[in-house]
């Protein structure tokens, strides 16, 4: 069977710190050629005119919760991966705190089987560590799985790893990349008691960052880093939320040589504690959205290279759940459809260059997780590509939200930039708000 060929013409290509005009030839699943001008060799080449549009590598989101198995009233791999594709995210790494949890090889393989059947985007999963599953952790094939996820705070089920001896053993025993959620449980419990004693269950949500405080984050992050330095483990700290934590990271060496890396999420770059009054529990996340000054310091660390990647921590709950009083409203929100438009909005505001958006959302996740042949626009790489019109405004409304939960913290926001096309492994899977009936998603592989 003849491989399909697509020629993207007249694009502004964003790759490796440069923006340049050119054409991209796709043959089968791969980028065959990039040049200033490429001619179609035959009549059956599909030509996409990208005049006036930017072409970005597909975004790699290193932290999502797609809720399957077991929590499918909130989301499924099918629904959320589709929303991701519409948001220019072509690859995702999903977390282990589903039901049952992904803490055995058997449960991990069951998840891969679901994704192989239903995912619209390329996929991999984190394996979950607990206080008592080291034996299973050591069975994980690092070339086949994104990494190991440890909750050092705020876990569901039995996934809180709070035994220091177990923690040190895991850090010492595995050469998997270890990703951690860092919030100190003791600090949070003491803070919570103070507010609960005063307000009962209906604690005003503005106190969420006081309960899940800067100190809780810093204490946990600094301990994890200390342990990584002691054991030589490869550590990646998820969703930094405080300015104080940024001092723990370095920009002195290239990302590929770093043993300790950090991520920031879209919501911590967009919202601040000033938004609780209007948004309420819709912006209740763990770790909490904190002060404006924290947000500014996160931006500074992102731009100077101390923070390496931007992710979503996409974690949907039903609107009914979120509408509860503070103690009963779960933390987390849906973001994959709106993350890239939100960052491009920050580009329009002069906060970040489009080259830097691509570095932090595409190139760096590929380097950090050693994702094979993705995250760049390069000949011989998989053709995961996103076409963006930077001047085609649209407003987030109930009608265009694709998440199963049906709501977004960005509802009512107008974005200047629109994703017009998404290519996945060489196939056009999304065009002008319509999904193509093409099954193109693949399991991510890693060059380790």
From TrEMBL:
Name of protein: Dihydroorotase
Family as reported in the entry's similarity comment: Belongs to the metallo-dependent hydrolases superfamily. DHOase family. Class I DHOase subfamily.
InterPro entries per UniProt: Amidohydro-rel, DHOase/Allantoinase_Hydrolase, Dihydroorotase_CS, Metal-dep_hydrolase_composite, Metal_Hydrolase
Alphabetical keyword list: Hydrolase, Metal-binding
Organism, scientific name: Pseudotamlana haliotis
NCBIfam families documented for this protein: PRK09236.1 (NF006688), pyrC_multi (TIGR00857)
Cross-referenced PANTHER family: ALLANTOINASE
Pfam families recorded: Amidohydro_1 (PF01979)
Any one GO MF annotation of this record: allantoinase activity
């Amino acid at each position: 069977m003849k491989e399909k060929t697509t020629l993207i013409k007249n694009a502004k290509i964003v790759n490796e710190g440069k923006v340049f005009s050119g054409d991209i030839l796709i043959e089968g699943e791969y980028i065959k050629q990039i040049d200033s001008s490429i001619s179609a060799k035959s009549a059956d080449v599909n030509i996409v005119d990208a005049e006036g549009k930017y072409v970005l590598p597909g975004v790699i989101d290193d932290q999502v919760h797609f809720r399957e198995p077991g929590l499918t009233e909130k989301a499924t791999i099918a629904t959320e991966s589709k929303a991701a594709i519409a948001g220019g995210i072509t690859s995702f790494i999903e977390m282990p705190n589903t039901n049952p949890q992904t803490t055995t090889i058997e449960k991990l393989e069951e998840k891969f089987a679901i994704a192989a059947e239903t995912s619209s985007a390329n996929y991999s999963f984190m394996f979950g560590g607990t206080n008592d599953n080291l034996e299973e952790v050591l069975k994980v094939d690092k070339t086949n799985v994104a990494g190991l996820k440890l909750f050092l705070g705020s876990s569901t089920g039995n996934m809180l790893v709070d035994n220091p001896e177990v923690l040190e053993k895991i850090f010492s025993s595995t050469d998997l990349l270890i990703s951690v959620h860092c919030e100190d449980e003791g600090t949070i419990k003491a803070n919570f008691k103070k507010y609960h004693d005063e307000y009962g269950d209906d604690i005003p949500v503005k106190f969420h960052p006081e309960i899940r405080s800067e100190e809780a984050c810093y204490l946990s992050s600094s301990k994890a880093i200390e342990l990584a330095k002691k054991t030589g483990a490869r550590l990646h700290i998820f969703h930094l939320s405080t300015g104080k934590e940024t001092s723990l990271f370095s920009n002195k060496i290239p990302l590929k040589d770093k043993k300790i890396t950090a991520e920031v999420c879209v919501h911590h770059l967009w919202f601040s504690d000033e938004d609780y009054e209007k948004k309420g529990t819709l912006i209740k996340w763990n770790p909490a959205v904190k002060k404006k000054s924290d947000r500014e310091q996160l931006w500074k660390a992102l731009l100077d290279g101390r923070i390496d990647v931007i992710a979503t921590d996409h974690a949907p709950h039903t609107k009914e759940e979120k509408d509860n009083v503070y103690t009963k409203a779960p933390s987390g929100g849906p973001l994959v459809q709106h993350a890239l438009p939100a960052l491009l909005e920050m580009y329009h505001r002069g906060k970040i260059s489009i080259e830097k958006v691509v570095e932090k959302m595409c190139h760096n996740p590929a380097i950090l997780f050693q994702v094979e042949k993705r995250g760049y626009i390069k000949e011989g790489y998989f053709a995961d590509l996103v076409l963006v019109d930077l001047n085609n405004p649209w407003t987030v409304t109930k009608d265009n939200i694709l998440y199963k939960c049906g709501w977004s913290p960005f509802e009512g926001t107008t974005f200047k930039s629109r994703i017009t096309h998404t290519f996945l492994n060489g196939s056009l899977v999304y065009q002008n708000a319509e999904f193509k009936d093409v099954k193109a998603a693949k399991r991510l592989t890693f060059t380790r």
